[in-house]
Amino acid sequence: MKKSFVIKRILYAVFIFFVVLTLNFFIPRIGIDDPAERYYPPQGGMSDIEYEIIKQITREQYGFHVSTWQQYLNYLEDLSQFNLGVSLRSGSPRVSALIGERLPWTLVLSVTTLIISLFIGVLIGTVAAWKRGRWQDTLLLNASTISVALPAFFIALMLSFYLGFELELFPAYTNPNMVAQFDWSWEAIRVVANNAALPVISMAIGGIVGYGQNTRNSVIAVTNEDFILTARAKGLKQNTILYKHTLRNAMLPIVTSLGMSISGLIGGAIIIEQIFNWSGMGTLFLEANSTGDYPLMMGIMLFLSTFAIIANLVTELFYVVLDPRVTVGEKR
Amino acid sequence: MSETLDKKTIFQRIGKNVLKRLKRIGEFLGKLWKHPKGRIGLIVVTILVILAVFAPWIAPYDPYDVTQRAAKGLPPSWQHPLGTTITTGQDILSMLIYGTRVSLLIGVSTGIILAFLGAIMGIMAGYIGGFVDSAIMRVVDVMLVIPTLPLIIVLTGLFGRNYFVIVFVFVAFGWTGLARVVRSLVLVLKNSNYVKAAELAGASRWHIMMRHILPGTSHLLIMNTALTSAGIMVAEAGLSFLGLGDPTAISWGKMLADAQGGGALLFGAWWWIIAPGLGIFFAVFGFMRIGIVMEEIFNPRMKASSGIYKLFKNLNNQYVEEVFASMDERKLLTGDVKPEPAESG
After folding, report:
1. Residue from A227, A255, A266, A272 nearest A319 by CA
2. How many alpha carbons fall within 13 Å on the CB side of residue B67?
């Protein structure tokens, strides 16, 4: 791998990061030019001078008392110290602290979902590709048609209704004490697993079928390659061909797509988290949205975008390492 | 020559053109109808369109009527085929029929506008190249890393929650995937002989882009409209479910949210959840079928399942990004897709 390629990609990622950061700074300012009037509307029995003073204090509190350009510089300075700003919640907690508090809980959901859907999906996809045109393949095709048209949140509602309320197999809502009482004991972990079951299942269904289709197409594409024919002609065992020749090549695009999908999962779990009352980043974001807490919302957005940028960069670099056939510069 | 004759010829020309277009659409629908999968999609979509247009005449009750205290929480019966809501006794079938309007309107209008924007951006990036190309592609790269759903939530919060804003946001952040694919197709078309001939004949850039390159990408655009419409319907239902849709309208997502908030799960009112879910299912299913079948008609070598795979990417929050991922540049460059010669005039 050429060094210049790596440096180029890193510089490009930094550039994208700066654009995202700038957008992140300006988007909330499209709608709000003065936080003072938004958060403290004039109240009765207050003289104009008093209200002006309150507005001035509020502006200084949120850093709006200087010009927009100066605000932008301050924002950059804060970010260089990993300071995402202060939430508007009572007690003014730092945005980074709030994200740090909720991130592990979202990761529990998304990583479990990813692992489950990857393993089962690859298994199903390989079987479907191996039995191309037979009932296993048709089943996967029909399952994917159906599951695409059923949104994950509808599946989640049905699961929560049937498995949660009717059969009482799993809790239909997350116990709010789960997070507060978590102490790494086996009992606590069991409770978390129990509560995570339904959200994970409802998110994994789409993922399983998606990875299944993905693997199937990829495996079929590899099966048609000449080197598989050579392997057959050499008289290698079916299993050797499958594991050592086909899957190894077919998995490449799937493994490299993992980075992107995990950043997608973290951001995409919003609706599922809301249904199951799971205290992750998604619910944090919705809470921030309902109170108009823009520093918190933009902090979460910036975090997710940065995550995606890094995931993209790592994927791109890995891709070149893993697949020597990709010549540097060809993949854009 | 007199003016009247000129007018006559102009009208004749317009009439001919319109007839030609209609004939083409008719032929195309015929092809869809002949395909067994396409027929299902066509039937479902036609039914939905009829329901949406004639909702006030078809719906048995007034879906906005929240005063039916006596009819609260009725399970499905002959009087209320899909039952009533627990909280206010609204007739669910009527709500479902009215909800078709929102879904179709948002889905189809977004799909169409998005196709236009994606086509323009992709064609400009591919044909003009140079600075325009890199500028557009940088924008695409930035859009790809920004999480879509949170951004949509922020923007609807800033601009208000009406459907214009929602469509605008969906379009503004959905065109990137299509633009990428169109761009790669245009890169191929650019080197085809008829474009070269037009260039040599001294046609302007704009003329070449609109009259020669755009027709070559049209099959991609039509396909994309059907598939994105399906994807946007799901996304809109999700937004409404979060309570971020238009608060005054009845939509399927909002019905689901009301069901959850109104304790449908707790009181076992399964009909209140299943009905809107089935609505979403059929709408998405119908449009998806049409999109996939179109793909098979336009590009017979493509496998039936690839369309579904694309839609998956679409729904897995990567949005319309890589809706046509499998038609990558390599395939196009080796001539897997043969550009149709554009008609002149």
Report:
1. A255
2. 2
Q: Is residue B149 within 8 angstroms of chain A, CB to CB? A: yes
The number of folded domains in chain A is 2
Out of A145, A213, A304, closest to residue B147 by CB: A304
Q: Which of residues 93-152 of A touch B (CB under 8 A)?
A: 141, 144-146, 148-151
Tokens representing residue B85 in the block: 């809501």
Mark whether A63 and A110 lie in a shared domain: no
Burial (Cβ within 10 Å: 0-12, 13-18, ≥19) of residue B173: buried
Terminal Cα-to-Cα distance of chain B (whole angstroms) = 23
At position B191, the amino acid (one-letter code) is: N
Give the distance from residue A216's alpha carbon to the nearest chain B alpha carbon, in angstroms.
10
ipTM over 0.90: no
The pTM of the full predicted model, rounded to 2 decimals, is 0.80
Q: Do A289 and B154 touch (CB under 8 A)?
A: yes
Are A120 and A188 found together in one domain?
A: yes
CB within 8 Å: B145 and A309: yes
A125 contacts B305 by C-beta, under 8 angstroms? no
Read off the pLDDT of residues A113-129 as tens digits, 9 standing for 90 and up: 999 999 999 899 888 88
Tokens 């940088």: give the residue: B138
- CB neighbour class for A135 (10 Å; exposed up to 12, middle 13-18, buried from 19): exposed
Residue B91's DSSP bridge partners are: B84
B20's CB contacts (< 8 A; 6+ apart) are: none
- Residue B308 sits at the chain A interface (C-beta within 8 Å): yes
**For residues B283 and B274, is the Cβ–Cβ distance under 8 A?**
no
Q: Rounded CA gap, A119 and B201, in Å?
A: 57
CA distance B286 to chain A (A): 9
Measure A282 CA to nearest chain B CA, in Å.
Answer: 9
The conformation of residue B83, written as its DSSP 8-state character, comes to: -
Residue B147 burial (10 A CB sphere; 0-12, 13-18, 19+): buried
Kindly state whether residues A47 and A179 are assigned to the same domain: no
pLDDT of B204-234, one tens digit each? 888 888 888 888 888 788 888 888 888 888 8
Write down all domains in chain B, each with its CATH number in brackets.
Answer: 11-305 (1.10.3720), 307-345 (no CATH)
User: Which of A270, A291, A312 is the C-terminal boundary of a domain?
Assistant: A291
Residue B209's nearest CA partner among B224, B221, B195 is B195
Domain span holding position A261: 103-291
Q: Taking CB atoms and an 8 Å limit, are B285 and A145 in contact across chains? A: yes
Cα–Cα distance list, B68 to B72, B77, B248 (Å): 7, 16, 19
Query: How long a stretch of residues is chain A?
Result: 332
Which conformational region is residue A329 in: left (phi greater than 0), alpha (psi within -120 to 50 degrees), or beta? left
E strand map for chain B: none
In angstroms, the separation between the Cα of residue B309 and the nearest Cα of chain A is 6
Residues A108 and A76 in one domain: no
Mean pLDDT in order along chain B per 10 residues (345 residues): 65 84 82 81 89 83 71 73 75 86 89 91 88 89 84 83 84 84 85 86 86 83 84 87 82 85 76 86 88 74 50 39 37 42 41
